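For reference, the entry.
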Amino acid sequence: MANSVTRPRLAVISSGGVSGDSRAEKTAAAAARAGWDVTLIGRSASTRRETHTRGGVTVIRVPVAADMQERSWARRTPRGPRARLAHWGLPDDRALARARSAHAAWVRERTALVGWLGGSPGDPANPAARVRAQALKGWVRLRRQAHQGRVRLYRMERARGAAAVPGPVGDWRADWPALLDWDLAFGPVIEEVGPDVIHAGGVTTIAVGARSAARLRARGLRTAWLYDAHEHVAGVLWPDRARASACPAVEEEFIGRADAVTATSGGLARLLQERYGLSRTPLTVGDAPVAQAARVARADRDGPSVRAVCGLEPEVPLLVHTGRIAPDRGLTTAVEALTELPGTHLALVFDGERGPELRAVLDSAARAGVRERVHVLPYVPQAQVPGYLASADLGLVCRRATPDGEVALPAKVGEYLHAGLPVVTTEVRAVRALVHRHGVGTVCPAGDAPALAEAVRDALEHRGALARNISAALLEELSWERQSAGLLELYATLAGLPTVPEDGSGHAARTGDDRPVLTPRDLPWPGTGKRERPRKADPEAGISVPDWRPVPPQGQPGQPRVRLGLGCANYAGQLSGFARAVCRARSDVAAEVTMHTTASPLTGYPANVRIPRGQLGGREVKLDRVNRVLGAYTHYLADAFTPAFGWLNGQHIEDDLPALRGAGIEVALLAHGSDVRDPERHMERYAHSLFHAAPEDVLAVLIRNSARNRRAAAESGLPLFATTPDLLDDLPGASWAPLVVDVEGWACERPVMERERPVVVHAPSRRWTKGTERVMPVLEELDRSGAIEFRLAEGLPWSVMRKLVKDADIVVDQFAIGTYGTFACEGMAAGKPVVAFTDERVHKAVGAVPPIVNATPDTLRTALESLLDDRALAARTGEESVAYVRTYHDGRYTAGVLDGFLS
């Protein structure tokens, strides 16, 4: 009798994130279509539980901690006197991270005190304080060295302990305790659902399924569980000895307790029965595409395609490989084969991080001189896979022979064939047999690049004949509809439900007690529904609405000649200003601003598309960006060297340039500041350079990143633009495209300097970047004396900041860069005198010297007192400031600079 009085309940467990586990998704959707109440349980990438409904399936993702793994590490790590000394106060890496933060906070506080005690350069006052400052400097230096030594000692002992940990002991609980962490995370969710049947997908969930079923039975529920074997676990090349020991051990402990076992191939089913002495041969349920969805996807001409993502013309030979990247997959051989296949490209469809395995393949391609012909592409929803792959020419199976690979037909083979692609495979037994039996591809030895190249040439030459051999009967055999029919009947048997023939109604037949009966049927792909585009601007959420001409949807008649994409930093709303400026200047331009957002209130600038940074690696975001950029834009302005396609090819625009060029899109690069500014040269030039105050770790990153950006810009051959004139020294060949502000929106009727205590505003985004700590004492002292009313604005939304500036009399900007930024432009647009440090040389070089009151931290007091003493001069400076920004920063000048690129 079912646990539910309405519909039988099924819990499908996947150790992955669900969205990339097509077998789990297809299983859940098939059961939901057949009348089951289905819960699909997977791992959350965040620290919280996530629940939603998709295609009639309740999807629950839960975070999986590493507590048992860390506990095991701690218990098995040697704890001698040396280890106790090295780990004193630092039991684990998280404690080390906290200690490093505490040390950094102490250093910042003491170095600030050094600055206050030391006074100003050239000021001989208070020699005792200077002596104290020098002593404090020495103390900070000693503490730094001690802290660094402690960190080194901790890490050395960590490495020594890792090397000393004994090998596998044969108990999966000790060898790979992560399996216990999965049980702790998933088990309570399964028991909360109370299913009639638990489907444990893969060896990593076998213990979860077995234990949860037993606990539910102890509560009096009739719960059965099924183990779905995905691989021959004893024959898999696991990444470490611990898993190589733990996985066969955990399978051996629990497989005999399962109420039923399924396997992905007949060979694997027979092997499991023999190895574990199972009373029945496991049911074979091959991992195959949904044929109905495949037909729809291949007919969809507007769907995504690998060829479009790669930016390749139809006549360019394109090979595709889908799935996991690992040493046994033979992809370095495929890369080597490209050297003998001129003009042929390889697309790697991969749903994962750019880890060491992928880097090894790409490094191999770089060494072979074929890196520009190797493309890394995101997954798409399974409903779209056949259409996605169909634009390629051949599908590759390059893997080396392994015990696991010999007994199973990879899921990618079915995907290739449903996409209409002939297969080029190495001599993996199951794939080789299918290719020879049906004549749908060519075969070559594993690890032999020349032989693989010859097999590819042969398949390309006879592609038409090979493709015609992909018969309807073969596709029906390799379809999820065929493979899942037996699985649905098995579920019914396990739940004690009778099975009856299909009643022709398109719904599950029902018995007299109104319980659904499971029957085979054509199964649609469990689509994710209409994929939402990244959120558009919402004025109610504090985000300004774009007011420029938007890029129309693809296919809409009357497309503008220039469709300009801008992305994706949008620092201080500059891309928004650029989009507004060029659309006002030219009627043939439409623009679309994409912005990577954070939780900061400073990211509320106008944008057409807003993508949270945490989602940039998601496959739906990557695919959406590819479709939009390659399908809609004619021009692309990349600011701050951010990538165009999410984190598809990497986290730098340089990684996306081959695809953009291949699609015929005109590209230009836009620099803003520290993305290209050379910190070392800047520190040599300016005594008060912001980089002198930068945290050591931040400075190292800035030096490395800016050097890469300058090199990428120089080697790109693309048009280069910079928003501040000082950057022209760092970016030879660039043009000054001035910062753009909404001059009318910042216009202010309030006269300046009429209050007895003028309001002075200073707004650092990060204090060290504007020299805040060096000027705060002056501003605070003037405030305490009653000369000014000082307002420090930090972390405020854009709309609040605008009100604050309009209410001010004087705007104090930066004293660490040598030029002015967006905040200074906004202050000038509001008619306020702005005080900042500017290098007149760089401004004279572009013929635009701003009416900014030039000051350093040492002369700030004098500059402010001059404005307080001569208020008429201050008011005139405000008026000149408005005229200056109208000339250079209302967008007209910038649109003129960009005109050549857009033409």
